[in-house]
Amino acid sequence: MASQEDIFKKLIAHSKEYGFVFPSSEIYDGLSAVYDYGQNGVELKNNIKKYWWDSMVLLNENVVGLDAAIFMHPTTWKASGHVDAFNDPLIDNKDSKKRYRADVLIEDLLAKYDDKINKEVEKAAKRFGESFDETVFRSTNERVLENQTKRNEIHGRFVKALNDSDLVELKAIIEDYEVVCPVSGTRNWTEVRQFNLMFSTDMGSTADGAMKIYLRPETAQGIFVNFLNVQKTGRMKIPFGICQIGKAFRNEIVARQFIFRMREFEQMEMQFFVRPGEEMKWFEHWKEFRLKWHKALGLGDQKYRFHDHDKLAHYANAATDIEFEMPFGFKEVEGIHSRTDFDLSSHEKFSGKNIKYFDPELNESYVPYVIETSIGVDRTFLSIMAASYNEELLENGETRVVLNIPAVLAPIKAAILPLVKKDGLPEKAREIMNDLKFDFKCGYDEKDSIGKRYRRQDAIGTPFCITVDHDTLLDNCVTIRYRDTMLQERVAIADLQQIIGDLVNMKNLFKKIVG
Questions:
Q1: Is the same domain home to 406 and 362?
Q2: Last residue of a domain, which of 392, 412, 444?
Q3: Are 242 and 226 in contact (CB under 8 A)?
Q4: How many Cβ atoms sit within 10 Å of the Cβ of residue 172?
Q5: Going by C-beta distance under 8 Å and a sequence separation of 6 or more, which residues neighbour residue 250?
Q6: For the chain, is the Cβ count within 10 Å smaller at the N or the C terminus?
Q7: Is residue 80 part of a domain?
């Protein structure tokens, strides 16, 4: 069995070879942690965005959209707390000259203890078979208890240090538990210091008159500063939501794991405005709704879990992540936060404008509370690619690489393949393609043997291959091959529209969410 690390490397290579993701400006040796989406990647990405957008604005009549500018008045970021508090704790190894996030080093240390405990449990499960009682084993086994005690001790110190912003204690944990640099293997660390993650630039034509502005580190603030604009022009009644898809930028210290942590990335965010005191009810509602959205894709319910935050952001009174099992462990793909009235109150204070909502039912004005759902497009893309990538051993001994991407999100829905490049078959194939292309993104391929063409389509995740052969000219039927099962059946050309349409319709996913 290939290790998860090997599979991840293969996935990265596959993403490039088949036009999903390229390193940015690669002819100049690339730019660290910046990526471009290729011809298949952009289709998958657009489909993910459409699935999210429509699930928000079609399924919820009280949610509307917005597209705010990336550049914002600099006071926005003062009000939001980003100028003063948007920092990561930074530590350098003096020997390797490599830079790390101190909190990530400690999280990796905690993960090692989790692994040790899980290995003990797995070994025991094999040894005892069906009679194995995991709960009893975890609470009585000496080695498990020893590791759990140590883990709890580190975790307790870690959470306190984070909440107190105690950089000295973060360094102490790294030293006390002998955390080494993964590159040099030494423990020769610098002090921990704070590093602001915002990119800044100057706007204006002269050096003196230029205004320092920031590339937005999140899309949420564009929604908050437009709260009243949308509420008044849309005559929106609380509770209501505003959603947005857009680019955000963070000068990450440790950008790694391919497109998981990038310096330029895309977010899909919704801010849902509620009455103060009702936020926890809505927090639970959106947690449930968002998890259903993920699970509807059919990538495996066991691959998702909720993870409550150890450290709440300065604005939150509840926060949880939806984590997905990536090849490098469970990682956050979406955050659901109860942001209280922090943002709107802060913008009211800094702008001097009244940002209250008048509630006709209560006959009073108040600053609404906010529930946020924030999901990374790139991380969702990675989770779908990781869950879909399969190397299958076939009965004839061959291996096929297949992307079992949910059909509704697949970059190309159907490939039209004439059996040979003559006898009128290409013309017939083009006729079919011209008929289907109004509804579905289709591909056309006439190069190489039919078997090789099937493999190519499997590798980019095309759910249907439609082969046009000599009989097609006589009976107006084609052979349709299904990617996941490799089953082939003879169907009438007239039925293709419905066969494909039924399987790639987003309505199927929406029904799972609200059904």
A1: no
A2: 392
A3: yes
A4: 14
A5: 197, 198, 199, 217, 263, 265
A6: N
A7: no
Q: Average pLDDT, stretch 244-248?
A: 96
Q: How far apart are CA 112 and CA 148, in angstroms?
A: 11
CATH at residue 19:
3.30.930.10
| Residue 201 β-bridge partners | 213
| 292: containing domain | 1-71+216-392
- Give the other-Cβ count within 10 Å of 191's Cβ: 12
Query: 357 with 238: CB under 8 angstroms?
Result: yes
The most distant pair of C-alpha atoms in the chain lies apart, rounded to whole Å, by 80
Backbone phi, then psi, for 339, in 5-degree steps? Answer: -90, 10
Per-residue model confidence as pLDDT tens digits over 330-347? 899 999 999 999 999 999
Number of domains in the chain: 3
* Least confident piece of the model among 57-61, 172-176, 210-214: 210-214
Residue 399 shares a structural domain with residue 380: no
Same domain, 292 and 364: yes
The verdict on residue 76 lying in a domain is no
Cα–Cα distances in angstroms (integers) from residue 336 to residues 370, 390, 447, 455, in the given order: 11, 31, 48, 40
Residues 143-173: tens digit of each pLDDT = 889 999 999 999 999 988 887 888 999 999 9
Say how many C-beta atoms besides its own lie within 10 A of residue 6's C-beta.
Answer: 11
150 within a domain of the structure (yes/no): yes
Q: What is the token pair recorded at 508?
A: 């199927």
DSSP per position, 467-480: EE-TTHHHHSEEEE
In a domain? residue 445? yes
Q: Which of residues 261 and 274 earns the better pLDDT score?
A: 274
Nearest Cα to 432, choosing from 422, 423, 442? 442
Q: Based on the fold, state whether residues 492 and 365 are members of the same structural domain.
A: no
Q: Is the CB of residue 384 less than 8 Å from the CB of residue 48?
A: yes
Q: What SS3 class is residue 37? A: strand
Instruction: Label residue 60 exposed, middle or buried (CB < 10 Å: 0-12, 13-18, 19+).
Output: middle
448: exposed, middle or buried (Cβ count in 10 Å: 0-12, 13-18, 19+): exposed
CA distance 282 to 369: 10
The answer on 238 and 347 residing in a single domain is yes
We report the CATH number of the domain holding residue 413 as: 3.40.50.800
- Residue corresponding to tokens 């908050």: 224
Does the structure show a pLDDT above 60 at 1? no
Q: Is the dihedral of CA 78, 83, 88, 89 positive or negative?
A: negative
Contact 294, 301 (CB under 8 A): no
